[in-house]
Structures are given as C-alpha cells and as structure tokens.
Amino acid sequence: MKILIADDDPQVLRALNVTLRARGYDIVTAGDGVEALNRAIEHHPDLVMLDLGMPRLDGVEVIHGIRGWSDVPILVVSGRTGEADKVEALDAGADDYVTKPFSIDELLARIRALTRRTAAPDDLPVVTFADVTVDLSAKRVYRGSASAPETIRLTPTEWAILEVLLRNPGRLLTRDALLTHVWGPHHTNDSGYLRVYVGQLRKKLEPVPSNPRYFITESGMGYRFSP
Questions:
Q1: What's the pLDDT at 129?
Q2: What's residue 133's pLDDT?
Q3: What CATH number has the domain bearing residue 165?
Q4: Which of 117, 152, 183 is the last residue of a domain?
C-alpha cells in the first residue's frame, strides 16, 4: 500500500517515513502543497496523509485539487484543533482528521479504517428514499431519475456511516456501535467526529438538512435510518 505524506516539518516527515516503512507501507513524501499535488498525480497513492498549514498551497487547497480527479482516501494530520478547521477540511473532501500530537497506534488505526472502507463491497441492494438512490453494491449515490442522475459524492467515512445505517433500516444504532464500526473499538469517545459526519450526510442527502426526515438523532443514544 502506497501512502503520500505531505508536511512542511522535516522532522515529522522523517519520523512518519521511518515508522510507516517499518510497518510495510510504501511511502512518498512532499514538503509543501504544490509538491503534494504533483506527487499525488505522479504516484497515484492509495492514501494521502497531509497537514493543513503548508506553504505554497495549504492543505484545504490540496484536498480540493485532489478531489478534482481522485477519490483516494485523505487523512488530515494537523495541529489545528478547532472544529471550524475540521469542518472546513471535511467539507473540502477529507475523510478523517487526526490532531497533533498523536499516538502512532491511533494513526495506524485510522489508516486501517480508511483502507477497509475502500475495499470492494459484496453484492448489496439498492435503497431509495425521497429522490435519492443508493446502490450499495456499486457504492454509488445519485439524485433524480436513473436516465439523468445527479451523482452525489460521499467520502469513504460518510459512506461507511451511510451503509451501516441503510443496512439496518428502522433500527437504533448507538453512538458506540457506529464509532466502533467506522473507527474501531478504541474510538468510542469520538462522538464529536460522528456528529460532524452525520451532519455532512444530512447536507448531502436530506431534503431539509436542518429538519432531518430520514437520518434521525435519538437524543443521548444514537442514530436511526427511518425509511
């Protein structure tokens, strides 16, 4: 598996390069935003890991640039801890967000989770609600008629949450269950991330995101897909 790491801190690049190579990953590095885009185009990595505060192009601009042509999973690794920074990165197309300082075990878990989410799916049904159609097998979401569909792009993380909700229609899925399914058993306290991603799904799929009809919050418990 090839990972592109983009960070303007040489010590961070060197440490991640050594650590991830020791785990068997093929590593490509970039020291600024322009180099990151060029390396992504040249090497077609399986995952992109990038900082937000880089010279020449910042991380959000890099995410926009990559999303113009690729659905490769993007993991932001940044010292910016504000919710606005996280939401901006996720809106741009990032799939997950880790704040510095971080443990290598957490980083490896996030990498594994993103890798699992992009694996080939089994044959699964087509689910429709409102004017949205979700083909779980083809991992395709569109709005409107099949003859003239408007494709709705989801990040791998958004897809992972959507898929488990759609496969359990009407069933309450607790926050712990969703967090464990998407991020693994060591991330059951990351309810803020889950709230942000469910909000992103509502923006993309609900007729009125501020008054959700299909992706319902069960206060203090979790979420439910109500077909």
A1: 92
A2: 93
A3: 1.10.10.10
A4: 117
The full 3-state SS of 63-99, as one line of letters, equals: HHHHHCCCCCCEEEEECCCCHHHHHHHHHHCCCEEEE
Ranges of the chain whose pLDDT falls below 50: 120-123
CA atoms within 13 A on the CB side of 133: 16
Burial class (CB in 10 A: 0-12, 13-18, 19+), 10: exposed
Q: How many domains does the chain have?
A: 2
Q: What is the pLDDT of residue 118?
A: 58
Angle at 136 between CA 132 and CA 138, to 5 degrees: 100
Q: List the CATH number of the domain containing 75.
A: 3.40.50.2300
Of 82, 163, 148, which Cα lies nearest the Cα of 116? 163
Domain that holds residue 68: 2-117
Assess whether 102 and 135 both reside in one domain.
no
* Structure tokens given for 8: 């303007």
Question: SS3 breakdown of the chain: % helix, strand, coil, rounded to 5?
Answer: 40, 20, 40
Last residue of a domain, one of 64, 82, 117: 117
List, for residues 136-189, the tens digit of each pLDDT value: 888 889 998 767 789 999 988 899 899 889 988 888 888 887 887 777 766 666
| Residue 187: predicted pLDDT | 61
